[in-house]
Amino acid sequence: MVTNDTQVQNVVGTKEGRIFLAGHDSLFEVLYQTGNWFRGPKCEKQNLSKNYLSSFIPAISFLSNVEEIRLISVDDTRHYLYTLGDKGTIEVYDLGADGLKLERKKSSSLLDIRREIRSTCGVEDEFLAGIVAINAIPSTRSQYVCLEAVTTKGMRIYFTVYPNLVPNYPIEQQDARASTLLKFMV
């Protein structure tokens, strides 16, 4: 598969067989098909982050503030995909109830996360210097907490994608879809 000089940072697969790559400033999906007697197997990568126009006019990419995607984490129980950029931005993608779609739902920069934590917890800035890891939390471990982020100082930040901070239990995972990214607990 041609990567066009894109350095792949992270590779993740889903239970449904989808393969996602983090490369430079883009999220890619590997599309593969088995062959038939007339054609052999086919494999290609699709850029899910950039729009159609920016692939033809690279200058548009330079005008935007690009952030390299470092990590991808997938929650196969809820069908969410999370990315972490090198500047601390966390993005949430909804893979749909069946795990076969992809829709970007929310993006929270490190600045937004710091602001939200400072307003509720009073944590000092040195503990929020940067985010180095993200881990999806499956619904089998928590019905409400969906993502754990780890800072450079080892502090854990827990997030939910549900809009109500006080959940109505039990949450029907197949019906509840991501609509936000809120800090739940530090």
UniProtKB/TrEMBL annotation:
<dbReference type="GO" id="GO:0044611">
    <property type="term" value="C:nuclear pore inner ring"/>
</dbReference>
<dbReference type="GO" id="GO:0000972">
    <property type="term" value="P:transcription-dependent tethering of RNA polymerase II gene DNA at nuclear periphery"/>
</dbReference>
<dbReference type="InterPro" id="IPR004870">
    <property type="entry name" value="Nucleoporin_Nup155"/>
</dbReference>
<dbReference type="InterPro" id="IPR014908">
    <property type="entry name" value="Nucleoporin_Nup133/Nup155_N"/>
</dbReference>
<dbReference type="GO" id="GO:0006606">
    <property type="term" value="P:protein import into nucleus"/>
</dbReference>
<dbReference type="GO" id="GO:0006405">
    <property type="term" value="P:RNA export from nucleus"/>
</dbReference>
<dbReference type="GO" id="GO:0017056">
    <property type="term" value="F:structural constituent of nuclear pore"/>
</dbReference>
<dbReference type="GO" id="GO:0036228">
    <property type="term" value="P:protein localization to nuclear inner membrane"/>
</dbReference>
<dbReference type="Pfam" id="PF08801">
    <property type="entry name" value="Nucleoporin_N"/>
</dbReference>
<protein>
    <submittedName>
        <fullName>Nucleoporin Nup133/Nup155-like N-terminal domain-containing protein</fullName>
    </submittedName>
</protein>
<feature type="domain" description="Nucleoporin Nup133/Nup155-like N-terminal">
    <location>
        <begin position="5"/>
        <end position="164"/>
    </location>
</feature>
<keyword id="KW-0813">Transport</keyword>
<keyword id="KW-0539">Nucleus</keyword>
